[in-house]
């Protein structure tokens, strides 16, 4: 009986230890999300919110207080997997960055062709303020709201590709954490390089504006 009690105690401590380990922060630097029903008549705007957790104190912020400044290097793709805009927005320790999908992330793009209502958003926690040369540095955490349609109408059979489905309100809004993802050396290089080409060829267009810190929508 005593052995059984000790075994149960050991199992309990092991499970508690695992639960604690799962709640411990990590050094993630790369996050992804999606946006949907952007720039759609009648649909509300979505917002990406990113917080600097204050874990890095290597830098000094503009007013001279030890701050651990980081930048959210943001890359916005359309549903054809084309990069349409990019930027790097500064966030001081414990600061909040809120980026509107309609008014900022999709408002100033490299090109104007094609539909721009849905796609992917990628974020690198970076010590560099240059989106063409991100330098991964952990410390950012983010969330995004999503605009979900309540009805979806597909084209009639034979009328075309199903990707042309039309979604309509009323609309639901939900929020999820940005997905913790794996940043390979190739992906890091590609994001910076394509962002640089886009900003150069578009003569500066496509650099998404950054909201003043701690301003929210």
Q: Can you summarize this structure?
A:
The protein has three helices and nine strands, in the order αβββββαββββα. By secondary structure, it is of the alpha+beta class.
CATH architecture: Sandwich
* Beta-strand content estimate: 25-35%
- Structural class assignment: alpha+beta
CATH class: Mainly Beta
Q: How many H/I helices? A: 3
Report the CATH topology name.
Answer: Hypothetical Protein Tm1070, Chain: A
Strand order of the largest sheet: 4-3-6-1-9
Mean pLDDT: 82
Radius of gyration: 21 Å
Unreliable segments (pLDDT under 50, ≥5 consecutive)? 4-23
SSE topology string:
HEEEEEHEEEEH
Indicate the percent of residues in helices: 10-25%
CATH superfamily membership: TM1070-like
In total, the number of strands is 9
Rounded to the nearest angstrom, the distance between the terminal CA atoms is 60 Å
- The rough form would be described as globular
Question: How would you describe what is shown here?
Answer:
It is built from 3 helices and 9 strands. The protein starts with a helix and ends in a 16-residue tail after the last helix. A hairpin with a 4-residue loop joins strand 3 and strand 4. It is of the alpha+beta class and about 220 residues long. The model is unreliable at about 5-25 (pLDDT under 50). The strands form 2 sheets. It has a 5-stranded antiparallel beta sheet with strand order 4-3-6-1-9, with helices on one face. A 4-stranded antiparallel beta sheet has the order 5-2-7-8. The radius of gyration is 21 Å and the shape is globular. It has one domain: Sandwich (Hypothetical Protein Tm1070, Chain: A), CATH 2.60.290.11.
